[in-house]
Amino acid sequence: MADSSGTVTAESRARGIRATGRRRKATSRRRRALTITACALTSAVLLGGAGLGYVYFKLNGNLKGVDINAALGHDRPKNVDDGSMDILVMGSDSRAGKNGEYGRDEGGARSDTAMMVHVYKGHKKASVVSIPRDTLISRPDCTKDGKTVPGERRTMFNTAFEVGGPACAVKTVESISGIRMDHFIEVDFTGFKKLIDALGGVEITTSKAIDDNNSHLHLQPGKHTLDGEHALGLVRTRHGVPGGDGSDLGRIQLQQTFLKALMDQVKNVGVLTNPTKLYDIADTATKAITTDTDLNSVSELTGLAKSLGSLGSENIDMVTLPVTYDTANPDRVVPLTRQSQQVWDALRQDQDIPKSAIKGSAGDKGGTKNYVK
Fold it and tell me: What is the Cα–Cα distance from 243 to 161, expressed in whole angstroms?
């Protein structure tokens, strides 16, 4: 998420990219989904079980899809049909429409949150790699609206989404990781807030005060139930966190912690016995996301969510892409080549990310990971 305006004090109450080969089926358990899409996928599972024809049709109409397979063609990493799954999850900071309250529309949406989610074979655990928006990368040539968008060297990672949309973001991640994405999911500002509100808020505990006028977030130490506005402020804040470095790296740590709390909240939401709450969550969730065309139906989301049913927050390993500050511009970071390759190699081989790949990375020094739980 971005870091324009944000939220106010919260006190104590306060789609694929699936390759043509078919992957992944797994058993369903009580825990649903992961990362930002936890709410949407959970809602889809519950809806699928409800068998409500009209509601099903209406919610399908809420979904938006992007045909990334058609946009990218065949020049992509090999599809490894081993039962694992890779999903690119992005948070959009478009200032269009209702998002205008967060700042002036500069002409294109950027993605200030990017997470590559690798679900291991068996779908009982996952690794999430956050890619800092300020990471300098070589962006490949992309196509948008039938026109070629030339590639660029030493450009910020989040420009891929801005200049070429979801397909370019996917192509960029595939080019730097060598891993084919199976799906793409995007959530925007307004949708994020509404999802949190529909869930009844998310509980967190802060160990120290967070005081950020830029995101309008002011939290005292202690327990808080964050509504959508406050939650958005938390995942966007970069300033006002004692010990933080004021960078996107510190913000990523807050995002990772919050998303685990969000997963726990989804797990505990009692909607099976409350049809009204079920509908509200499902309606809000399906309006909040844009997916690849292989996911833009309730039935497909239901199938994905069921395959992820055994995942809980304790089964998710969240890391930041190993980076170091750019010597020519300290406001930017560059990947640590050897260590980043360790990360991508491990995931490509469906193995755990080695701790040595993260050690010494600036992404491990944001200074905020112990401030929220």
Answer: 31
Q: Which two tokens stand for residue 185?
A: 């999911």
Neighbours of 223 (CB within 10 A): 12
The residue assigned the tokens 């948008």 is 144
> DSSP character for 324?
E
Give the model's pLDDT for residue 327.
95
Structure tokens at 155: 């450009």
Domain ranges of the chain: 35-364
Query: Cα–Cα distances in Å, from 146 out to 36, 95, 161, 370?
Result: 30, 24, 16, 46
Q: What would be the CATH architecture of the domain defined by 35-364?
A: 3-Layer(aba) Sandwich (3.40)
pTM: 0.81
How far apart, in whole angstroms, are the C-alpha atoms of residue 90 and residue 19? 20
CB 309 within 8 A of CB 26: yes
Q: Whole-angstrom Cα distance, residue 248 to residue 324?
A: 13
- The answer to whether 132 touches 321, Cβ cutoff 8 Å, is yes
Find the mean pLDDT for residues 44-58: 55
Close Cβ partners of 172 (under 8 Å, ≥ 6 residues apart) = 137, 139, 140, 142, 157, 160
